[in-house]
Design goal:
This protein is mainly alpha-helical. The protein has 18 helices and three strands. It has three domains: 209 residues, Up-down Bundle (Growth Hormone, Chain: A); 53 residues; 225 residues, MFS general substrate transporter like domains (Growth Hormone, Chain: A, Up-down Bundle). The protein has a three-stranded antiparallel β-sheet. α1 runs antiparallel to α8, α3 runs antiparallel to α4 and α3 runs antiparallel to α17. This is MFS transporter.
Length: 494
């Protein structure tokens, strides 16, 4: 049996060449990717019912979202290195088993602490699962034609996974229980594990791959401390010593992370990847857009269910126009704009439209209708997000040298998750403070006032992103001629 080496810098070997079962391997890897993507949206729909069942406060509900995003985003770069060191197949199987176990514990949670811990564990195992699946895809599909088809299928699963999560989460919550939004991962992961063991070719890791544990600890600690600081501000105020101490500690930790990356011989994140204005500006656009995305899924879910009286299933359906807009724009519109103008035009225009959509949502009232207020805003948001994702994820990984391709891919998703978690925490604090100030208006009106304030601040972030990306990204930025043209596509996690 022949041995085929991976690309330089990947550090692993595949012990057997792909055979006629490679399309079944694609099915297994796509299922693994679907499991990870599902949990970015499925739990959001169930969150109001979970809050009611477990009795946690509105101030704490963002932790259910942030715990997953922080551990997934913070450990994603390390997860890629782990997969290179241990071998992609072994890492994939371990990630699937761990993810399923954490999902089972989360569904059985009897307290907020238990649920948040399970969500953090889901994110951690997802952080090793996702890079392993993507790496295996590049190993199994070597022929250009097959590779294009495989990445097309894999990418469509990533995009459709958000819609599947919304609909499946709504149906499971409405007809069974919110817990099934987590338990559904168990049978899906079991199928994927069996398929991986039988079908996925064996790979061996490389002991030469060095894990940057200090860097991983610093980046996770920094982001968690910042989220804690934003959350503390809700109860103690922004000027409180505890709030300032947490925020300052988070900033210092992230500064230490940058220092480690600059001076380390095996950095988790080679700074050359982000120092390029072309890629750095694209990464900034993708990361800042996550603040708006997370705020919509978090606050609009509660508005639709608690204020408008939508059922969980109808709530999932209500989000589909935005997902459809993202899918169409990212596939059909953003690529030709990217080829014609470079990333600056579609990313800046997408940020402007995203801000407009959120500004529209900031006018919600208890009497607003879905058709005249929510739907148009979601359509505008979907168009804007589609432009950002279609151009931003492509540009964030284009022009990298071969040894940095995996890092750039992971970084795009990591930035989205981390910024989304930070946005959810800070906007939750802003929303709760606005709701408290409007308490004399009644419970429903006060809650909507909080959502409106959060949407308004998120819109301002988008408008800042519009200016920043327009200035930072060069016009018609060229791709580095020495860079690889074989970089893997980056799946989008909504």
């Amino acid at each position: 049996m022949n041995t085929a080496k991976l690309e330089p810098g990947r550090g692993s070997q595949i012990r057997e060449r792909p055979h006629s079962s490679k399309w079944w391997v694609l099915a297994v890897l796509s299922l693994a990717q679907l499991i990870v993507v599902l949990d970015s949206t499925i739990v959001n729909i169930a969150l109001p019912r979970a809050q009611e069942a477990l009795g946690f406060s509105s101030a704490d509900r963002q932790w259910v979202v942030s715990a997953y995003a922080l551990s997934f985003g913070g450990l994603l770069l390390l997860g890629g290195r782990i997969s290179d060191r241990w071998g992609q197949k072994r890492t994939l199987v371990i990630g699937l088993i761990g993810f399923a176990s954490a999902s089972f514990v989360g569904g059985a949670a009897s307290s907020l602490a238990m649920l948040v811990a399970a969500r953090a564990a889901q994110g951690a195992f997802g952080a090793v699962l996702a890079p392993a699946a993507l790496s295996l895809l590049t190993i199994v599909f070597r022929e250009p034609a097959d590779r294009t088809r495989a990445f097309g299928v894999f990418g469509s699963v990533s995009g459709a996974g958000a819609a599947v999560g919304l609909l499946l989460g709504g149906a499971l919550t409405e007809y069974w229980s919110w817990a099934w939004c987590l338990w559904v991962n168990v049978p899906l992961a079991a199928i994927a594990v069996v398929g991986a063991v039988i079908l996925v070719p064996k790979t061996t890791g490389s002991s030469h791959v060095v894990l940057d544990i200090p860097g991983a600890v610093a980046v996770v600690a920094g982001t968690v401390l910042l989220v804690l600081g934003f959350t503390q501000a809700e109860t103690s105020g922004w000027a409180a010593g505890s709030t300032i101490a947490l925020l300052a500690s988070g900033i210092v930790s992230l500064g230490v992370f940058i220092l480690i990356q600059r001076r380390g011989t095996h950095p988790l994140l080679p700074l050359r990847v982000v120092m390029n204005r072309y890629r750095g500006g694209s990464l900034l656009g993708v990361s800042l857009s996550a603040i708006g995305m997370f705020s919509v899924f978090l606050f609009l879910t509660f508005y639709l269910q608690d204020t408008m009286g939508f059922t969980p299933l109808v709530t999932g359906l209500a989000f589909l126009p935005m997902i459809l807009g993202i899918t169409v724009m990212s596939i059909a519109v953003a690529p030709p704009l990217l080829r014609r103008f470079g990333p600056r035009v579609p990313i800046a225009a997408g940020s402007l439209l995203g801000g407009a959509g959120l500004l529209w949502l900031s006018s919600l009232s208890p009497e607003s209708s879905y058709a005249t207020t929510v739907l148009p805003a979601l359509v505008v948001l979907g168009i804007g997000m589609g432009l950002i994702f279609g151009a931003g994820f492509n540009s964030a990984t284009a022009g990298v040298h071969l040894e940095d391709a995996g890092v750039a891919s992971a970084l795009a998703n990591a930035g989205q998750q981390i910024f989304g978690a930070l946005g959810a925490a800070s906007l939750s604090t802003i929303a709760l403070q606005a709701s408290t100030s409007a308490g004399n208006l009644g419970r429903a009106a006060a809650a909507v006032a909080g959502y409106d304030r959060a949407f308004l601040v998120a819109a301002m972030v988008f408008f800042v992103a519009t200016i920043a990306t327009a200035v930072l990204i060069p016009k018609n930025a060229p791709v580095d001629p020495n860079a690889t043209s074989d970089s893997p596509a980056v799946p989008v996690h909504f």
